[in-house]
């Protein structure tokens, strides 16, 4: 008897078929087949992270090779430690793939060359096609099951944020508060995994910024910076004491289901500068305006242009998306990874489609006070405004009891 836990494919039949169909439809015009090795994409396709390979023809059933966890079973599954062995089995079953899509944006040059050579040894004249654009487009539009998981993450994420005022104690540093939020989040069921695509971002479970640390530039492609606790991870909390007259911006991980939500809320200690209070309300206004614009067919860059125009009209362009260093976007797609398509940026070519999930984060940095603004995760619907799935209170909450 094969137990469910021993099956490679953990998705139900209908969900697996839907994801495979979408992938093959997008793949067929550009390549004969795709080789998948990246953990995030393997999880997207099968519902499981495993060490191995998935070979997806444009018009036939996938084949799977396992380097570890070789006890896993299912159609087309076999143990193959080396890619060369896997290529031999694929060539004995599938027609030649002259155009082979490889994950060139996440695999090393050496790995890509080895994968190409393994299949070229079977078929000759194998050319490499970048798989990234196909995967980016397919993964951007979520299935109903994926949206269900996103909404569940949002619900539990919200529950954690509602408890933050009770976690604060006078004299705390930003890192001490972050640890308490992390503990609460893990007890709520957060997996702790902050999965990021690419090599220009690193983070643990999220970011807490208080006072002028919010104005510290970071080398990473996040909306806000922060000096961090050590030069090895220069982003986020730096150990500053949370002081009266400053803000605390909380941007913490919402991965409770393998699918992430992104949410930012701002807190304060006592009274803060009027400019900061006003900028926070502009952030909320921007989110409402963009949520109303976010219907299928809308160019992502139009959302960015609208956000920037609203910040400029409010006289806050100088501190919009940073002060000493400005982020070049106001939102991003998310799902299995925190930085998926679409990108809400001035040169973005992305077009909103039903089923996309988008985090909007119009933020401001007010020198002497700190960062203000909100971030919500939204679902693009067939008509009407985008659905917000991170519903914690949006006003600046005073931590002073």
Protein described:
This protein has about 400 residues and is of the alpha+beta class. The chain has ten helices and 17 strands. It has helices at about 15-25, 40-45, 85-95, 110-125, 130-140, 145-160, 165, 175-190, 275-295, 300-315; strands at about 35, 50-55, 65, 75-80, 100, 125-130, 205-210, 245-255, 260-270, 330-335, 340-345, 355-360, 365, 370-375, 375-380, 385-390, 395-400. The strands form four sheets. The protein has a six-stranded mixed sheet with strand order 4-3-2-1-5-6. Strands 11-10-12-15-16 form a five-stranded antiparallel sheet. Helix 3 runs parallel beside helix 4. The protein is elongated, with a radius of gyration of 23 Å. The model has no long low-confidence stretch (mean pLDDT about 95).
Brief characterization of the structure:
This protein is an alpha+beta fold and 401 residues long. The protein has helices spanning 13-27, 39-46, 83-93, 109-123, 132-140, 144-161, 164-167, 174-188, 274-293, 300-313; strands at residues 33-36, 52-57, 63-66, 77-79, 99-102, 127-130, 206-210, 247-255, 260-268, 331-333, 340-344, 357-360, 363-366, 370-373, 376-379, 387-388, 397-398. The protein is built from ten helices and 17 strands.
């Amino acid at each position: 008897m094969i137990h469910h836990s021993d099956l490679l494919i953990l998705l139900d039949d209908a969900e697996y078929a839907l994801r495979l169909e979408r992938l093959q439809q997008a793949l067929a015009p550009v390549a004969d087949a795709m080789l998948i090795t990246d953990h995030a994409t393997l999880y997207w396709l099968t519902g499981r992270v495993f060490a191995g390979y998935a070979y997806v023809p444009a018009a036939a059933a996938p084949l799977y090779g396992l380097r570890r966890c070789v006890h896993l079973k299912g159609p087309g599954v076999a143990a193959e430690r080396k890619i060369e062995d896997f290529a031999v089995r694929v060539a004995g079953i599938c027609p030649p793939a002259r155009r082979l899509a490889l994950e060139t944006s996440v695999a090393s040059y050496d790995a890509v060359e080895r994968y190409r050579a393994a299949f070229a040894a079977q078929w000759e004249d194998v050319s490499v096609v970048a798989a990234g654009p196909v995967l980016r487009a397919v993964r951007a539009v979520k299935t109903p099951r994926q949206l269900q998981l996103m909404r569940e993450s949002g619900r539990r994420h919200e529950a954690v944020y509602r408890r933050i005022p009770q976690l604060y104690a006078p004299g705390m540093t930003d890192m001490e508060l972050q640890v308490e939020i992390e503990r609460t989040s893990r007890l709520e069921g957060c997996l702790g995994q902050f999965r990021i695509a690419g090599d220009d971002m690193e983070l643990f479970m999220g970011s807490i910024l208080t006072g002028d640390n919010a104005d510290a530039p970071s080398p990473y492609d996040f909306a806000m910076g922060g000096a961090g606790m050590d030069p090895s991870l220069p982003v986020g909390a730096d150990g500053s004491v949370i002081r009266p007259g400053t803000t605390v911006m909380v941007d913490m991980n919402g991965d409770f289901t393998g699918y992430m939500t992104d949410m930012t809320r701002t807190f304060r200690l006592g009274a803060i500068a009027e400019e900061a209070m006003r900028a926070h309300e502009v952030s909320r206004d921007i989110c409402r305006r963009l949520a109303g614009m976010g219907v299928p067919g809308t160019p992502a860059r139009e959302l960015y242009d609208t956000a920037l125009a609203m910040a400029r009209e409010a006289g806050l362009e100088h501190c919009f998306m940073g002060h000493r260093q400005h982020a070049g976007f106001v939102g991003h797609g998310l799902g299995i990874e925190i930085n998926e398509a679409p990108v809400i940026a001035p040169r973005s070519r992305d077009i909103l489609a039903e089923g996309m999930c988008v985090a909007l984060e119009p933020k401001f940095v007010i020198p002497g006070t700190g960062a203000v603004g909100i971030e919500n995760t939204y679902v693009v619907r067939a008509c009407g405004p985008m659905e917000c799935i991170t519903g914690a209170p949006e006003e600046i909450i005073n931590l002073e009891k």
